[in-house]
Amino acid sequence: MLHANSEEKQSIGLMGGTFDPIHLGHLVTAEEVRIKFGLDKVIFVPSGHPPHKEAKDVSAPEHRYLMTVLATITNPYFNVSRVEVDRMQAERTYTIETIRFFHQYYEGKANLFFITGADAILEILSWKDYQELLSICSFIAATRPGYSLSKLEETIGEVCPEALCNIYVVEIPAMAISSTFIRNRVSEGKSIKYLTPEAVTQYILKNGLYSDAKPQYKTPLSSDTKNRILK
Ligand code: NAP
What we know:
single chain; alpha/beta; Rossmann fold; binds NADP nicotinamide-adenine-dinucleotide phosphate
């Protein structure tokens, strides 16, 4: 297993996700992985336009970026990157481009760990340039309790057994919370207190995200972002 300071390199976690919205499950995952893998820091990378999702089904990148900043602000080991959010002109944002960006940024001198949900990693063999991805970065798959690891082993192991050496799995009980669960609760007018940091809850309510309720106050967004929402 790659570990912090092996070959005296930094170890950097890149926490990739749509974060619509970010919740305590994501935060617990990042902290747990940081400690377990001895990472120097975890950089959250809210996705721009995820390749497998329609833009209209996902909140504006700027909203997801701002909620991620609010959620991570109190942890000195956490940072948030705009690298995918700012790739607005791109039709789709692919993980390989993000990993290449960080590989270059650290001049190849850091071990990179891409952290995301196990269900997303199950699909990795369909991701753009997945072989290059697996060669320049390790993957950490966060699972919910009761998730069957054999799914991952069968799906990836059968086609590309060598890829399994580069994929680590961590079970996170707090991942029983999901973004879908939170969005559904907001749309049903139910409380989401304690499922996400209070600042994120307030951001959701102020901006009327996930519900038809009138926003209490709207966060000003750039004209680029407004155009995307109106599309
Ligand atoms: P998703 O399909 O919305 O989520 C799949 C599962 O993983 C959900 O249960 C989700 O729970 C969980 N999950 C997502 N991000 C997580 C995280 N950081 N930590 C723990 N669990 C997480 O996945 P997604 O958010 O769209 O994609 C995940 C990442 O993979 C993104 O960075 C995306 O850009 C990348 N990706 C890249 C490609 C490509 O390059 N071709 C294709 C697909 C995905 P929640 O809903 O609660 O988050």
